What we know:
By secondary structure, this protein is mostly helical. About 75% of the residues lie in helices and about 0% in strands. The relative contact order is 0.22. The model is unreliable at about 30-40 and about 110-120 (pLDDT under 50).
Amino acid sequence: MMPTTATLNLFFALSALTMILVAGYFPFKKRLAQAEQEHTDFPMGETLGTGVFLGAALLHMLPDAQTLFMKQGYHYPFALLVTGIVFLLFLWFEHLGKELYHHDAHEHLAHHTHHDAHTTHPAFAIMAWMMLSIHSFVLGTALGLSQDYSMQIMLFLAIIAHKWAESFAIAVQLNKSTLSPKTAITLFLSFAFMTPLGIGIGWYVGRDVSTHSFIDPLLMAISAGTFLYLGTLHGLERCVMVQRCCNLRDFSFVIVGFLLMAAVAVYA
């Protein structure tokens, strides 16, 4: 007997919250300066997740969003427009974060010792927190909106594989900064609850009935833009599509993830 949608989404929300809190625990426990030199890596999970996100964006979210827009009488390609805007917005945010980071590093190198240069200005940590929190909320919403069990399972596994490293990274950034421990913990906890909150809202909006309004395809298009970004340029020069594209073993998992979503699309 299949679990109800509500039960499944509750399981997803609690599992995601637990995993995020566990992954972010170590940087807070140690508050290590050298943690910034560590890049937590999970090649198979990251590459498989990249393919799943890309497939979910192009084969599920984007077509569904455009279909809903057209059913409601909107013949302009709003789904493509919103997806493109969200994609470019996240790209701009990430570039802005890098600019803040490099500007802060240059200032420290000019006025302090090399060791002090490793202390990050709060602006960069807050920018990273804001962008990743938005990612988390939209991913959770997309998962909650989905009514197909196969797609839900695939998205959940991709989110888990992606989110644990992201959780560790944001915890490191918050602890590297000059933010007080209390503020850093508060920001991290708010980040941790974004995915469960998104799952709950997505489930509430999409449960059994549609709102039959602009909000339904709009949420899907926003999800498509987020998934497309996570499946391509998230992390910029460290993203899977750049860093691992010449490694056939790693890149093959991107293809596997994409093909899995293509297979799900047959039955969705």
